[in-house]
Design a protein that fits this description.
Elements: H1 13-28, H2 34-42, E1 63-64, E2 70-71, H3 74-83, E3 91-95, H4 101-107, E4 112-117, H5 120-127, E5 138-142, E6 155-160, H6 169-173, E7 175-185, E8 191-198, E9 204-212
Parallel strand pairs: 3-4, 3-6, 4-5, 6-7
Antiparallel strand pairs: 1-2, 7-8, 8-9
Helix pairs in contact: 1-2
The structure holds S-adenosyl-L-homocysteine.
Pfam family, one: PCMT
Main location: cytoplasm
EC number: 2.1.1.77
């Protein structure tokens, strides 16, 4: 884990070139939100992986990180972020900080982000990550995402980055009227991406998007 500490890693023309290609491939796969694409172009994804995987950092693939978890595929990050229809100054809740890559993509968009991770080892590991320190708008918590964060609720947007067995009721409650929640739903290896909207009267609407594959959303904290 040493590489997370000390001096920032190098972000050179090669990395920047690979990022441009990655953004190009995301455009071809249908990502149209320019702010999301600009965020992906700005963030050195190789900072989030072990140095041995520097080149793979810019392939459109998920990758193992620590504690048996994964950094989501760039396409998935872009797709979920695009579905959130982020507006400047939105207050956003993310469940599943993981590597914090998705958190930084959101952090680039001028919002306030509260992000929860249930694995203590991963929560501590990310705390050493120098790159994250530039995002004063990202607040991290160690806890169970099923509970949400009642103290800071309601949220304009909620993003779940692990496969939820059902729509977590407390998170639905913590979504503002007019808000959007994006959540992969399903108990198997594959989930359906669901865009949930809450209207001004508190009614919930669900729209099913494509199939995706996430690590499961688990209850309780893990030390
Ligand atoms: N957003 C991450 C994706 C990480 S994978 C990234 O960009 O890298 C999903 C993460 O969700 C894992 O780290 C897993 O530990 C976490 N997770 C699973 N269930 C959870 C829960 N109930 N509350 C909070 N985090 C949870």
């Amino acid at each position: 884990m040493q590489y997370l500490q000390g001096k920032p890693k190098d972000d050179n023309f090669l990395h920047k070139g690979l990022r441009k290609q990655l953004v190009q491939s995301l455009r071809q796969k249908g990502i149209t939100d320019e702010r999301v694409l600009a965020a992906i172009e700005a963030i050195p994804r190789h900072f989030f992986l072990d140095p041995a995987f520097e080149r793979q950092a810019y392939e459109d693939r998920a990758f193992p990180i620590t504690a048996g978890q994964t950094i989501s595929q760039p396409y998935t990050v872009a797709y979920q972020t695009q579905l959130l229809e982020i507006k400047k100054y939105d207050k956003v809740l993310e469940i599943g900080t993981g590597s914090a890559y998705q958190a930084c993509v959101l952090g680039e968009l001028g919002i306030t982000l509260h992000t929860i991770e249930r694995q203590k080892a991963l929560y501590d590991y990310v705390g050493q990550f120098f790159f994250l320190k530039k995002y004063l708008n990202i607040k991290r918590y160690y806890g169970d995402g099923f509970e949400g964060l009642p103290t800071y609720a309601p949220f304009d947007k909620i993003l779940i980055t692990c496969g939820a067995p059902f729509l977590p009721p407390k998170l639905l409650q913590q979504l503002k009227p007019g808000g959007i929640m994006v959540v992969p739903v399903g108990e198997d290896e594959r989930q359906k991406m669901v865009k949930v909207t809450k209207d001004m009267d508190g009614r919930i609407y669900q729209q099913e998007m494509g199939d995706f594959s996430f690590v499961p959303m688990l209850t309780g904290k893990n030390n």
